[in-house]
């Protein structure tokens, strides 16, 4: 995933999504292709058409911060999309953490989610791989999988792969397309920060080859830092659930995220979560919870 080719594709997709009237231009004549023309976008950004064309063609990697900012404004990018554009256009400004060993959850993070016996929690790595989950988190999102599977990197579940390639996970989300768009938007953001990550490139390649729906969503370049919101589920044990989710990010460079689910007090979803907790009679020792070394 070359950052220059990713930059060019992102610019082309976002330019094609804009109509002249969206940016205050008059639309003259019939357009052979949808969206703004290159020269129109260049004019709005205050750069030469030749220079902007080189950016779209992946031939320039020295765009100044002022130019990137001007292009972001011309494309009407939101905060997350603007950050993504900067990551693609100036990858050298993003500090990356090179992983030489299989990733694993921090002991403190593991203790934290274990202490939340009534709150489903899942610890995700930077590529949406599951590093750990507590008992109710496991029962909520992947009860058909082995609880201990996150401990072994070779069989570790990946939430994005499950969403697109696993029938049970797909059936869990009553608004599947909304959930799929959210997942791809988050993965795009990660890809912009780590264009030289071979494991991420492998994940995207596998999903593109095996899911036409993923391939179509990926090609649209959605970008969003999904930190909170609602998830709509139909759980095989407790039925329909409308759950709030929050994502906590540890203040280190691991790229880990703690995904937590809650229900408003007094709602059917709160009762369903309580039922899911009370149905869990399994007892797992500290050693069983600990990640493989």
Strand order of the largest sheet: 2-1-5-4-3
Figure out the total of helices.
14
Structural class designation: alpha+beta
Radius of gyration: 22 Å
Say how many strands there are: 5
| Backbone shape | elongated
Oligomer: single chain
Segments where pLDDT lies below 50 for 5+ residues? 93-100, 281-293
Main sheet summary = 5 strands, antiparallel
Distance between the termini: 31 Å
The helix fraction, in percent, is: 40-55%
Average predicted local confidence, pLDDT = 86
Output the helix-strand order: HHHHHHEEHHHHHHEEEHH
Proportion of strand residues:
5-15%
Commentary on this structure:
It is a single chain. The protein has 293 residues and is α+β, with helices and mostly antiparallel strands. Helices cover 46% and strands 11% of the residues. It contains 14 helices and 5 strands. The protein has helices at residues 3-16, 38-45, 49-56, 65-74, 79-89, 107-115, 135-142, 159-165, 167-172, 176-193, 198-210, 212-219, 268-278, 286-289, and strands spanning 121-124, 130-133, 228-235, 239-248, 257-262. The chain is elongated and about 65 Å long. Mean pLDDT is 86; it is low at 93-100 and 281-293.
Chart the SSEs and their pairings.
Blueprint lengths: L2 H14 L21 H8 L3 H8 L8 H10 L4 H11 L17 H9 L5 E4 L5 E4 L1 H8 L16 H7 L1 H6 L3 H18 L4 H13 L1 H8 L8 E8 L3 E10 L8 E6 L5 H11 L7 H4 L4
Antiparallel strand pairs: 1-2, 1-5, 3-4, 4-5
Helix pairs in contact: 1-5, 2-3, 2-4, 4-5, 5-10, 11-12
